[in-house]
Amino acid sequence: xxxxxxxxxxxxxxxxxxxxxxxxxxxxxxxxxxxxxxxxxxxxxxxxxxxxxxxxxxxxxxxxxxxxxxxxxxxxxxxxxxxxxxxxxxxxxxxxxxxxxxxxxxxxxxxxxxxxxxxxxxxxxxxxxxxxxxxxxxxxxxxxxxxxxxxxxxxxxxxxxxxxxxxxxxxxxxxxxxxxxxxxxxxxxxxxxxxxxxxxxxxxxxxxxxxxxx
Length: 214
Hints:
Elements: H1 2-76, H2 82-100, H3 106-130, H4 136-213
């Protein structure tokens, strides 16, 4: 009867230990997966949010520099500095190339394509103004259209960045919870091992007790 009870207790302890070990392995797997997601989010925040925002800012700056050149030429009745305008255009092209290889949401892709079309129209009108084929008010209207697209892209950037920030916070909080869970499971396993060892000592002592009577 005593042996049956002992085997039953051992079976329970083994079953509980297996369940706790499985839970520990599962929580460790989830934590590792969360850390990978966290790394991806941090990388995306830098590569696909911060850098593109910088590219848009630089594009906007070059556009304004060109607008200043045109306004100065118009107000002072001077010849437009074509070389400097071409330099700005080359810089904008490089920024466009860099921005295009970053990750874009569907909304961003749509707005980005719209921006490229508007920028092409503006550059064409600008070239006509420089060559005396077009009047300045045309470039002013098209410039406003380009600026609106840039503002829309910046707004989308901020919105997606906020979503990434919220996702990152959730991952961090989840990782903390799983860490506490792992610690708790380890403590429980240690207690089970200690209880098992104590129980084994008790069984050994009990088995020796009848012999001492003889």
